[in-house]
Inverse folding.
């Protein structure tokens, strides 16, 4: 019953679509030692797209009996396909994970291998923050490949055009800057309204700044998102949306398509986007990229809020191993996260450090700023659609989208999220 309930919960992550297999070891006739590893990930943009393919070839060269079959999908398609296969009671041999509540559901369903003993020798190499999302009850169910935070990526040239001399440090100053950008004929913010997850960053950060990190963590326990501070966070999202800061047609816009959020930023058609550490590479992949005109600033402080301005919101990526995967799958995870291999990904600007001592290889000035902010963060909150159980995370995304779209009030979305959280709890 526990396994069945967990599988149903995973299915609630997204409205499942797609399909496919995985989690199987192929042994061609006459070659009993041959192993095929199914590896699913979502690094569709450069430099990681090519780097990860290169790592797979290198591992195959070192292990001639192994063939790695990669399935690479963009964010929403990946979530949908992974949900479909996990709902059927299977998992790929290796798959990208954000950790947190979603991984916990997959663990409870018996779909993920406990790799604690296999990786005990390398665990001391990782930073505690990077490992935290993949550790449950003292056991390790994945290794991190990236860690980072969400913040505002901005176009310095467009800020200058609007007469903005420095990034806003407070929420009220941020709203004023949105007005200045509009007055200058500039689209203030690019948003992928169709995909919903980018929108939840606004409500999550405002809840962190207004209610504080302990309140978000407590809400995961008492399932109550109707408290005044959560309503206040919704009111501030509404205050932003009322300024009509997003591009025309944002409700139908995707994230990484040629006409989506990242491309608008990369092509200089919008002044800001609230996004994670991968933003520069996706901007360059989907659009032209801004080069030296791209800057970064952390989410502003909210005057009178209980949360610290140094608290960071975000997450990273990791690799989990399917419960039925062969031993070679664990070896590949360790290979991917060796210092010599992983630091090349950091150096390329594709990911941020997860291993102690990798900070020195960061070349990009903006990513170095992100890494520094992470290193000095007073607190850290995982993405809400990963920190909470899948159905709750999906409801957060849906509700914030309704709030931004003007079809639900701050009070109503708090009630809707609480209702789902209670049914899951």
């Amino acid at each position: 019953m526990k396994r069945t309930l967990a599988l149903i919960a995973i299915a609630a992550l997204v409205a499942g679509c797609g399909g496919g297999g995985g989690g199987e070891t192929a042994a061609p006739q006459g070659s009993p030692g041959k192993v095929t590893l199914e590896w699913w990930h979502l690094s569709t943009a450069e430099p990681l797209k090519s780097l990860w393919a290169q790592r797979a070839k290198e591992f195959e060269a070192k292990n001639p009996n192994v063939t790695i079959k990669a399935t690479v999908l963009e964010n929403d398609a990946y979530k949908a396909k992974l949900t479909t296969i996990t709902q059927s009671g299977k998992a790929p041999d290796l798959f990208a994970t954000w950790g947190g509540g979603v991984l916990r559901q997959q663990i409870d369903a018996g779909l993920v291998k406990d790799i604690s003993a296999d990786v005990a020798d390398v665990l001391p190499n990782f930073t505690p923050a990077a490992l935290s999302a993949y550790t449950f009850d003292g056991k390790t169910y994945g290794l991190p490949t990236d860690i980072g935070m969400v913040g505002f990526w901005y176009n310095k040239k467009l800020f200058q055009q609007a007469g903005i001399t420095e990034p806003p440090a407070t929420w009220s100053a941020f709203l004023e800057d949105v007005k200045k950008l509009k007055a200058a004929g500039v689209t203030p913010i690019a948003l992928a309204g169709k995909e919903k997850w980018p929108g939840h960053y606004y409500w999550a950060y405002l809840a962190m700044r207004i209610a504080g990190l302990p309140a978000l963590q407590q809400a995961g326990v008492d399932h109550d998102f109707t408290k005044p501070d959560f309503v206040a966070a919704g009111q501030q999202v509404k205050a932003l949306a009322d300024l009509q800061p997003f591009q025309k047609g944002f409700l139908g816009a995707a994230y990484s398509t040629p006409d989506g959020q990242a491309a608008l930023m990369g092509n200089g058609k919008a002044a800001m986007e609230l996004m994670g550490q991968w933003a520069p590479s996706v901007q360059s992949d989907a659009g032209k990229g801004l080069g030296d005109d791209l800057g970064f600033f952390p989410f502003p402080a909210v005057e009178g809020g209980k949360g610290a301005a140094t608290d960071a919101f975000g997450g990273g990526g990791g690799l989990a191993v399917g419960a039925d995967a062969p031993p070679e799958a664990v070896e590949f995870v360790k290979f991917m996260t060796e210092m010599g291999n992983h630091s090349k990904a950091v150096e390329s600007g594709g990911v941020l450090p997860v291993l102690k001592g990798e900070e020195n290889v960061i070349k990009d000035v903006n990513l170095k700023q992100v890494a520094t902010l992470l290193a000095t963060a007073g607190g850290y909150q995982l993405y809400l659609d990963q920190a909470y159980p899948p159905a709750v995370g999906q409801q957060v995304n849906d509700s914030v989208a309704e709030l931004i779209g003007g079809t639900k009030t701050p009070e109503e979305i708090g009630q809707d999220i609480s209702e789902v959280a209670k049914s899951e709890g």
Summary: The two ends are 16 Å apart (CA to CA). DSSP finds 19 helices and eleven strands in the chain. Confidence is low (pLDDT under 50) at residues 1-32. The CA atoms of residues 240 and 370 lie 25 Å apart.
